[in-house]
Amino acid sequence: MNTIFYNKPEIIFDPFIINEDLTFIHGKKLNDSVNDLKLSGNEEIHYLNEKSFESEILKFEKLKTNNGWIHFNNGTSFKISEGKILSIKLRLESLGKLIKYDSDFVRKKLGIPDRIGVDEITWVFDTVKEAEIYFYDNKKLEVYFDPNSKKINQIVIGDISS
């Protein structure tokens, strides 16, 4: 089964759908190679030990044999290891209508998460909670919720060891 995520984003919460079968930006799925990926020139690319003077094209070539990230303008990011997509992060407009769903909706669809975490950042002496995270290990899924609205603000599919 090959399902295009953007045609029906709620499919990600179907407990019977295997996330490795979902197709995302540029027709890519988890574990796909990025070797044939056509870039627009608007992507932000980073890899381990990159040099500040390198062009995005050179970074992309080096990413094929390194570990790093490709960030697209719509909020989608690919975590790459040696040219393969390990995980896909969805934020901003790439979430589409998923931003309207809250933690209660996700629990109803997928059940109690395997773990719940907190994403925090410390500014000088203040710690700010940026998100509550539901981890569904068998589905290889992390769902981030805004701490105030409890609505989805980020999803990570795939390698959730990062």
Structure description:
The chain has 162 residues and is mainly beta. It folds into two domains: 3-92, no CATH class; 96-158, Roll (Nuclear Transport Factor 2, Chain: A), CATH 3.10.450. 10% of the residues lie in helices and 36% in strands. It contains two helices and ten strands, in the order βββαβββαββββ. It has helices at residues 56-63, 103-110; strands at residues 3-4, 22-23, 44-47, 67-71, 76-81, 84-91, 115-123, 126-136, 141-145, 152-158. An eight-stranded antiparallel beta sheet has the order 3-4-5-6-10-9-8-7. A two-stranded parallel ribbon has the order 1-2. The longest helix has 8 residues, at 56-63. It is globular, with a radius of gyration of 16 Å. The two termini are 27 Å apart.
